[in-house]
Write a structure and sequence with these properties.
The chain has 17 helices and no strands. By secondary structure, it is mainly alpha-helical. It has a single domain, classed as Growth Hormone, Chain: A.
Length: 395
């Protein structure tokens, strides 16, 4: 029981490497200048990466059950690194979309679920909190990788930065993956209350789960929560530079700052979900989305405080949903088939990524400002409250 404390930090380190996608906005402007493309095209690798990430998750659930978390993570880590390194040889944005978007994105999808499944199985008594702590790595990734990526881009160019980061990830992920394993029978002491709750929970397979109204409601709630957060993350640096008139160095620092909130959102909402249930956690997140979206409509040159408050909130909400959704999946559909079930629920993340990237890029190219996207996120916050109220029973 004492040795289980090692697994959330191991998972956190692996997810720190995988979460470098949240630093994509640091690459956007350099790649636009390098390949002479607009905002929509420079957002395509980000969108494709997240979509590929989400689509690989259901497949990863079966791999985890068949091969175990260690082997699955190593396989995914090799694919992630290959995608980053191959992207370093790109001659166009289309090539980056293929290498970074499809290959690296699929690798992240294969890796991502294994550390979460390990933490969930070792901490049945504090599942939401354990998952939230593990997920801190994914959220805090940009805090470390955004300034590192900015330095590498400034020193070597964006393509060399891809190669250096890819090689680094291969080493780190492989070392951490070596220690991952599920508990053996009898290693975890389950309290009588937890045993009773597990016995009472409905244990569904993925095929049974996807046919239920609760799955659809959770999927839609997850899509809305991630769409708002991913749109904000994808345009954080451009909004800071184009609207608030920050310089590139300050904009990169802001990404690192917001990453702290993204990381903090995971244990915070994991705790709230354990304490109050997914319904209340979801409603709180949507209220915050509405407030943050409203603040963006007050932006003008020099509105640094409003910029920090609104974007920090949206980054935090994305982190929050990456803790709410896995905990809700386990409590709603049982822990037995969690890895496979969450793989299907996670496809909502891909839907949010695709819609968020397409909408924000289209609105920027059409109306000349990213700020029009926040009218949409405010409306989606209202819709999310309605769906969450109908989907989840109060704990």
């Amino acid at each position: 029981m004492k040795s289980r404390a090692i697994y959330p930090p191991l998972g956190m380190t692996i997810l720190l490497c995988l979460g470098t996608i949240y630093s994509w906005s640091v690459f956007k402007k350099p790649l636009e200048a390098l390949f002479n493309v607009g905002a929509t095209e420079s957002g395509m690798p980000f969108m494709i990466f997240l979509a590929s990430f989400a689509l690989a998750m259901p497949f990863a659930g079966f791999l985890i059950e068949k091969l175990g978390p260690r082997t699955t993570t190593i396989i995914g880590g090799v694919i992630v690194s290959a995608g980053w390194i191959i992207a370093g040889f790109a001659q166009s944005m289309s090539f980056i979309s293929l290498a970074y978007g499809i290959i690296a994105g699929a690798g992240v999808g294969i890796c991502y679920g294994a550390p979460l499944a390990v933490s969930a199985k070792w901490f049945p008594d504090k599942k939401g909190l354990a998952l939230g702590i593990t997920l801190v790595g994914f959220g805090l990734s940009a805090f470390i990788t955004a300034p590192v990526a900015r330095y590498l881009i400034a020193t070597y160019g964006p393509l060399e930065a891809f190669k250096i980061l890819g090689a680094s990830f291969l080493v780190i992920i492989t070392i951490c993956a070596f220690f991952l394993r599920f508990p053996k029978e009898g290693e975890i002491q389950v309290t009588p209350a937890q045993a009773a709750a597990d016995a009472a929970a409905t244990q569904m397979t993925a095929g049974q789960m996807v046919k239920t109204p609760k799955f659809l409601g959770l999927w839609l709630c997850y899509t809305i929560g991630t769409l708002a957060g991913l749109m904000a993350i994808g345009i954080t640096s451009p909004v800071g530079q184009d609207v608030i008139k920050l310089d590139a160095k300050t904009a990169a620092f802001m990404i690192s700052l917001f990453a702290i909130f993204n990381g903090a959102g995971r244990p915070l909402f994991g705790y709230l979900t354990d304490k109050f249930g997914p319904k209340m956690s979801a409603i709180i997140s949507y209220v915050l989305i509405i407030v943050a979206s409203g603040l963006t409509l007050l932006f003008s040159e020099g509105s640094v405080v409003l910029y920090i408050i609104s974007f920090a909130t949206l980054w935090m909400i994305l982190g929050g949903w990456l803790a709410i959704a896995p905990a809700a999946t386990s409590s709603s559909f049982g822990a037995k088939n969690y890895a496979q079930n969450y793989g299907f629920v996670f496809t909502a993340y891909g839907a949010g990524a695709i819609l968020g990237s397409l909408v924000s890029g289209f609105l920027k190219d059409t109306f000349g400002s990213y700020l029009y996207t926040f009218y949409l996120t405010a409306a989606l916050g209202v819709l999310g409250i309605v769906i969450a109220s109908a989907t989840f029973k109060q704990k």
